[in-house]
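Marked as duplicate of an earlier ticket. Keeping the data here for the record.
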Amino acid sequence: MFKYFANFLKALYCNRKLLMQLTIRDFRVRYLGSHLGLLWAFIQPTVTIAIFWFVFDVGFKSAPVENFPFILWLITGIIPWFFISECLASGTGAVVENNYLVKKIVFRVSMLPVVKLLSALIVHLFFIVVIFAFFYVYDMYPTIYSIQVVYYAISAVILLLGLTWFTSALVVFLKDVGEIVTMVIQFGFWMTPIFWSLNIIPEGYKVYIKLNPVYYIIEGYRDSFINNVWFWQHPVYTVYFWTVTGFIFILGALVFSRLRPHFADVL
């Protein structure tokens, strides 16, 4: 498996120009035909954040969370969630959407989910800048802890690559997988502490919430911007996250490699 991963990284490097071309093409095609074009990639998440802010901060007048303004606490959780949900949703359909590459061209199909990840990452990087801008507006400036947002973004990419290899391969044969992923995303949004604090949950239930590897990433963004905590200060949970992520990554790679020879026949 390590050899497979090494060959995959080598293929990414050798095909880096093609990969970037496909990423740019995917980014453009997604919003082709709309008047605002690529701006929709940034408008939709911004409007969602504004709605949540208005409902909970202005309407319900939510109290500061952990002594931080609610809007700052909210965006540090919801922005990484946008990235995760977008990657999982679009990555699941990566093979089916690009069936012409599977059927007619000699192409490393395992790179197709990577294209979706990179496309979503472009938008995510913009919103990371938005986080810094919001903190600046509230007279709160970046600290040395903020640099570990890079670590958590990379952690999310590796987790998502394994997941999308798994789902994008299965959906070729089982169309219901796409609907299941949509349901999981909706369920995951409400079950992950994105706009509610883990502190409101009874102590006995917290461990179940923490079993979700996405919690590690969401909380990691807050550790980077709010809590000022290094990731190695959670040694047990960090080991747990990478164990689960490693398992998902290997499972996704195995399933994808085993089903890959049959894609063209089904598509």
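See parent ticket for discussion. Residues 28 and 35 are 13 Å apart (CA to CA).
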